Amino acid sequence: MAINRNTGVRRYSLVLWNLLFTTLLFLPFTSHAQIPDSNTVTVWGQVPAEIDSVQFTIMQDYTAGPSQKLSATLSDNDQGKFSFTVAASANLAEIVLSFYRKGVYQHSISNYLEAEQQMQIAVTNHEGVYQTTYRGAHASSFGLKEKLKSQWTGFVRSLTDLGFDWQNPEKGMAVRFEIFDAGFQHLIQILEGNKSLISPALYNLFRSEYLYLYYGSWQLHARELYQKAKSPQQKDVIKRAYQELMLKAPVTYEFAQISLAESYAQLLVSSVQTQLLFESGGVEYRFSQLYNRIKARYSGVEQEHALYTFLSDFKSFLNVTEFDPKEFDLCLRDALSITKTPGLQKALRDKLVFESGATVYNFSLPDTLSRVVTLSDFRGRVVLLDVWGSGCSGCVLFANTLKNKVAPAIQEKGSLSIVSINIDSSRDRWIKSLNSGKYSQHTYTNLNTGGMDNPFLRYYRVDAIPFVLVVGKDGKLFSKVEVSTSEKEIVAIIQRAMHMQ
Q1: Which residue in 119, 192, 259, 463 has the fewest CB atoms around it within 10 Å?
Q2: Rounded CA gap, 382 and 471, in Å?
Q3: Do 362 and 376 touch, CB atoms closer than 8 A?
Q4: Residue 250: is the preceding peptide bond cis (ω within 30°)?
Q5: Interval 421-437: pLDDT, tens
């Protein structure tokens, strides 16, 4: 099923820039995993008076998600001061602090802590803009993450008006590559200059993160240019130039078995995506084709991490056509059969809830009139569940696609129910966002979870929104829908669910 070229390029560019600016909202969730008391990390600080609660999340393995979530309610007597001390099984952990006022999210920070470290912060509010200052013995090492992030953000902004020489595409590709390569090398200079502040493990983690951000984004640009090419000759030049230029990219270092190094595995997947798109002549491919190519390309721990990341990352669905949920099921079962690493095995088993035909959690949630609605109420109809939250720009983009592209294309509209599930803890904020028309429509069934600590969200380990499921008439899962899936493919999934006996 070929996609209209103009539509494909437009959507592909949109997904590219959404990736660069992180429009998805990533969320902490409650986990009951037991953490060995081997190391401890401590985070403490002070926030402005209007902040009345602080949420602390720690992640020690990207395949397992957050391992602990704690919260502190602040009273006037606390004077904005908070403190968290937790046991950690890893020598390196990622922490996220989220700050709330009357249940409404205000600000968050994330950073890495090494064993036995303490993080001291001060959050201030300057005319509505929250700022974070690190203090204490490790302030410089914590500030390094912010410095690298600032460097990357400035680099992305510089790409806004990036042109391309279509008269000489080989030169155009070289110029593009030099921009990304020089950006990465400059960032590495900053990292090298601060190497003494951090451990080798954290150094490798930072390097792997930005390898993906720079060279993975370069690969996305190359794929976009390849699809925009107007002649076979231009395609051949772009393909050849990409292959030659990637030999210069410093992405061949040995895979570091760091539990938080998800970005390097993403680069492994992106490399195969790019090669397969070139080999197909820009024509979209089947999900299983890409899975089998990744499986054949890598071995050992690289293969395990690449396959897990492929089955977990929404960007895996870029350029995928005629997606069949059964393909995902077969690939998932195959990955489980060859994966040896215990943590990855468990993470893959957790995904079995997304197999086609799996029982969907029968939620009971209030609507705008406080009437309780359950999934079983929709038995006999195909249901699209759209989970969203206020402030999530990715949710706005999906809602727009659903309203303007997907819903109008469904021929049997009477057989489809769209259920919009909001995760805000504040009912007032939910209703305000709903009335804005940006996130949902009043013609949908609109429900609210009352926050992230909800059985439905825990069952699916929802840690990013929008989160979308298509449920069949029998109440069983038909397919999970990724935000990178084209509107044409979403419509096809819904139509197949409607015609399924």
Answers
A1: 192
A2: 6
A3: yes
A4: no
A5: 999 988 999 999 999 99
